[in-house]
């Protein structure tokens, strides 16, 4: 019987095991090293490819180093490239092997072929071995003077690599001055761009230790250099144009005519096909016109069309990057974009991250003229198959309603959402109805009629259930079944896993008890008993607080837990004005895409200057006001209503804002609550001392005896400061970057202090008399900014303070950072005390 036929399939190629293959390659390379036979270069190519492939998959082929170097003696540029790749890979991990490459790389740096000269020079500089820097200086000097632009371009980047290996060698060889000469005189624009990039990096690093480097860095943003680069900007490629435009943003023109000259010169860059160039140009326009309100508004109008065009073209990722910048501008000046709201409608094929940004922008641009169309469009998205987008669209409708645009129609839409048989739609609508009732209490009758038909069993999401509980407690007198719904929820206390819901349930039962006591008595007793036994500390503390204040006095408890409400005029913003303005300062960067400043997402070693370094650049060291302070640009940036800065907007809103619906308004009816605050606190700490017996109808007698005896707090020792404290600016910067914010406060200045603060010097002398020293100051009336420091008298513990004073509102904002966090509050009290005495004789 014949044996079975073997399969005709060829076996898969075996992976190299390492030793035998490398030995074979070594033998073959050695045979070809000195050969000059025809076709030898093709054989070398095949062997080199094998070596590179082995190296790529992790096999150690460093033993072939000598043979590879010997085989590199050829004019074939492909072989040269593969050899340089091999050499660069193993020279980093084995500096001894790198010595073998110096001769042939230096020889190739003088080859007739400019491509080989450039590749050899790049490979030589890429070795990055500290003890070989002496071999780099000569080839780099020759490369910078080479007749071929490619070699010069490689040599410029090689200088930067040399600087990172040995900064002293680079500076001693006078390479920075050679790069400066090339930047201003070379005919090749890529060489000019590389010189600019390298000089910026070198002089920025040297500026901390060399005054000459600081002066040289400032010459980069001088008028002759800026105008030279701008006049050649059309010759640069896209990358180089962005580099030049970024440099222009740091230039401060002498007058308005110079600003218009620059803008006219860059006008055509707004029509560039590359989005990065357009964004870089927009950043220049925005920063140049910050101090010119009317022109700044015209810039917004001018850049609107290019941005909208970029959003609609290119890949979704590119569109998102541009849309993020457009989103930032829309949030700063929504009125300008209100007529273009249809550009922000979501397309069915757009990714969810693009749709989410567009929903935020639709919310921002809504006004009296376009609210109906925008809300109609958003309601269509509520039925979207993408559930997160459906949720966002419902929230957007609610936000528009909270902006007081066409409230009647929007409330009807939200109530229709409650009738949809979709859990996530009902959940989002409940949260928004709660917020609407906080702002528009007059709509309670219509809203409660619909909410009353919703079963609490069908609401599972914690935030939605908490909103429902708030309405059950707040409007229990209008909801017939409210006490019984709350009672059923209390009975299922252990099944509720969300602490937020349990907290709201406690408050809702308390409110309901004050309005319908007989029906809620048993539920309240059970809720307090369950709350005090709860494992969550916040729930336990709230239940114990309610119990003890009820023991003290029921009427006082009602004034505390269920005071008369004021309508909430403005809801708190999730992002501070300082962060928003910092993001705007970092326009055309990842900060805009991430919607957070760079220091929040970069490592400390890559942050460069610390968080307020760009502000300190406009402040004077040592307490004297700088002559060329430009912070006034931001102060006067938008004194009109249209383009107000974020901080000014919040300041305008803040006077009418109300933090929470649970906060009692300050009027005559609630004054008694504050007057009896001390009594309430003593009753909570020791209920039996109040002289009130617990009410039997509360069914909480079993909780008696849980009072916590009051322990008098030990008086804190008075903080004493060192009158001769000293701190240099670099240490201050380092500490400010490293230390977290211990506390942030805002308080009022005395009228005498406001009148005395016409210039910073008077305040600096006053604070110094209280052992608080100024390291930097700046600004002009009405806005001043200071950085103070102080030290403990008995130890070298530092306190750092950022103080922003607005004399028009008589407000001071401080941020305190401290080596010893435990004494931050004591120092803040001392600082405020010293500041309050300013101007008082």
Automatic annotation (TrEMBL):
Highest taxon of the lineage: Eukaryota
Any one GO molecular function term: clathrin binding
Example of a GO cellular component annotation carried by this entry: clathrin adaptor complex
Record field: transmembrane: none
Single Gene Ontology BP annotation: intracellular protein transport
Subcellular location(s) per record: Endomembrane system
One Pfam match: B2-adapt-app_C
Entry keyword Cell wall biogenesis/degradation: no
Polar residues bias locations: 654-664
Gene3D superfamilies: Leucine-rich Repeat Variant, TATA-Binding Protein
SUPFAM superfamilies recorded: ARM repeat, Subdomain of clathrin and coatomer appendage domain
Key word Metal-binding present: no
Composition bias type Low complexity, residue spans: 1-17
Keyword terms of this UniProt record: Membrane, Protein transport, Transport
Predominant cellular place of this UniProt entry's protein: membrane
Region named Disordered: 1-23, 640-664
Biased composition (Basic and acidic residues): 640-653
Family: Belongs to the adaptor complexes large subunit family.
Subunit comment: Adaptor protein complexes are heterotetramers composed of two large adaptins (beta-type subunit and alpha-type or delta-type or epsilon-type or gamma-type subunit), a medium adaptin (mu-type subunit) and a small adaptin (sigma-type subunit).
Function: Subunit of clathrin-associated adaptor protein complex that plays a role in protein sorting in the late-Golgi/trans-Golgi network (TGN) and/or endosomes. The AP complexes mediate both the recruitment of clathrin to membranes and the recognition of sorting signals within the cytosolic tails of transmembrane cargo molecules.
Protein name per UniProt: Beta-adaptin-like protein
Organism, as annotated: Durio zibethinus (Durian)
Gene: LOC111284943
């Amino acid at each position: 019987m014949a044996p079975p036929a073997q399969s005709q399939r060829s076996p898969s190629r075996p992976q190299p095991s390492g030793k035998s293959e490398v030995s074979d390659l070594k033998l073959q390379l050695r045979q070809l090293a000195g050969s000059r036979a025809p076709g030898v270069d093709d054989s070398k190519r095949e062997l080199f490819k094998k070596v590179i492939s082995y190296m790529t998959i992790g096999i150690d082929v460093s033993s072939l180093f000598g043979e590879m170097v010997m085989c590199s003696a050829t004019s074939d540029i492909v072989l040269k490239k593969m050899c340089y790749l091999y050499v660069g890979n193993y020279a980093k991990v084995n500096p001894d092997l790198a010595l073998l490459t110096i001769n042939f790389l230096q020889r190739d740096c003088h080859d007739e072929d400019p491509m080989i000269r450039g590749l050899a020079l790049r490979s030589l500089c890429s070795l990055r071995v500290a003890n070989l820097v002496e071999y780099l200086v000569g080839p780099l000097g020759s490369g910078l003077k080479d007749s071929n632009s490619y070699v010069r371009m490689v040599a410029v980047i090689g200088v930067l690599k040399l600087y990172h290996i040995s900064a002293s060698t680079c500076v001693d060889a006078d390479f920075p001055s050679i790069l400066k000469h090339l930047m201003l005189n070379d005919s090749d624009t890529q060489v000019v761009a590389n010189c600019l990039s390298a000089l910026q990096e070198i002089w920025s690093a040297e500026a901390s230790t060399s005054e000459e480097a600081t002066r040289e860095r400032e010459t980069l943003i001088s008028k002759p250099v800026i105008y030279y680069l701008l006049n050649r900007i059309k010759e640069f490629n896209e990358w180089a144009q962005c580099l030049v435009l970024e440099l222009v943003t740091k230039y401060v023109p002498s007058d308005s005519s110079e600003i218009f000259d620059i803008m006219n010169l860059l006008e055509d860059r707004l029509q560039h096909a590359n989005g990065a160039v357009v964004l870089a140009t927009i950043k220049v326009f925005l920063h140049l016109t910050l101090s010119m309100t009317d022109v700044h508004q015209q810039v917004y109008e001018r850049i609107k069309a290019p941005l909208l065009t970029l959003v609609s073209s290119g890949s979704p990722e590119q569109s998102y990057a541009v849309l993020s910048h457009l989103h930032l501008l829309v949030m700063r000046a929504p009125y300008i974009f209100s007529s273009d709201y249809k550009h922000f409608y979501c397309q069915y094929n757009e990714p969810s991250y693009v749709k989410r940004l567009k929903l935020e922008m639709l919310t921002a641009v809504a006004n009296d003229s376009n609210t109906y169309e925008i809300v109609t469009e958003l309601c269509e998205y509520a039925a979207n198959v993408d559930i997160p987008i459906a949720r966002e669209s419902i929230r957007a409708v609610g936000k528009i309603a909270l902006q007081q645009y066409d409230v009647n129609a929007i409330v009807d839409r939200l109530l229709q959402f409650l009738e949809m048989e979709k859990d996530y739609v009902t959940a989002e609508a409940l949260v928004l109805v709660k917020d609407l009732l906080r702002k528009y209490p007059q709509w309670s009758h219509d809203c409660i009629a619909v909410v009353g038909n919703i079963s609490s069993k069908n609401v599972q999401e914690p935030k939605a259930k908490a909103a429902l509980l708030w309405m059950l407690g707040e409007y229990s007198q209008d909801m017939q079944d409210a006490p019984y719904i709350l009672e059923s929820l209390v009975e299922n206390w252990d099944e509720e896993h969300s602490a937020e819901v349990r907290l709201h349930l406690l408050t809702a039962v308390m409110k309901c008890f004050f309005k319908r006591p007989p029906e809620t008595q048993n539920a309240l007793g059970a809720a307090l008993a369950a709350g005090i036994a709860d494992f969550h500390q916040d729930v336990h503390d709230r239940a114990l607080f309610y119990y003890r204040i009820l023991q003290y006095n029921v009427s006082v408890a009602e004034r505390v837990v269920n005071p008369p409400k004021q309508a909430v005029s403005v809801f708190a913003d999730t992002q501070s004005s300082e962060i928003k303005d910092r993001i705007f300062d970092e326009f055309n960067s990842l900060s805009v895409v991430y919607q957070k400043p760079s220091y929040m997402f970069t490592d400390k070693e890559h942050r460069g200057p610390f968080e307020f370094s760009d502000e300190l650049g406009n402040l004077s060291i040592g307490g004297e006001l700088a002559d060329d302070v430009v912070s006034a640009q931001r102060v006067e940036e938008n004194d009109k209503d249209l383009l107000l800065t974020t901080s000014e907007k919040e300041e305008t809103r803040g006077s009418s804002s109300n933090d929470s619906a649970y906060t009692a308004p300050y009027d005559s009816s609630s004054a008694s609550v504050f007057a009896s605050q001390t009594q309430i606190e003593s009753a909570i700490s020791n209920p039996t001392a109040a002289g009130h017996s617990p009410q039997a109808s509360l069914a909480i007698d079993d909780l008696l005896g849980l009072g916590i005896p009051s322990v008098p707090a030990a008086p804190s020792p008075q903080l004493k400061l060192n009158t001769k404290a000293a701190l240099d600016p670099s240490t201050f910067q380092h500490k400010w970057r490293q230390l977290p914010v211990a506390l942030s406060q805002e308080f009022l200045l005395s009228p005498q202090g406001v009148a005395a603060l016409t210039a910073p010097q008077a305040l600096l002398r006053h604070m110094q008399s209280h052992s608080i020293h100024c390291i930097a100051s700046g600004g002009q009336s009405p806005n001043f900014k200071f950085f103070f420091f102080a030290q403990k008298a008995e130890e070298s513990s530092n306190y750092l303070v950022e103080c922003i004073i607005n004399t028009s509102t008589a407000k001071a904002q401080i941020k305190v950072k401290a080596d010893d966090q435990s004494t931050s509050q004591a120092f803040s009290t001392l600082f405020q005390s010293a500041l309050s005495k300013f101007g008082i004789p």
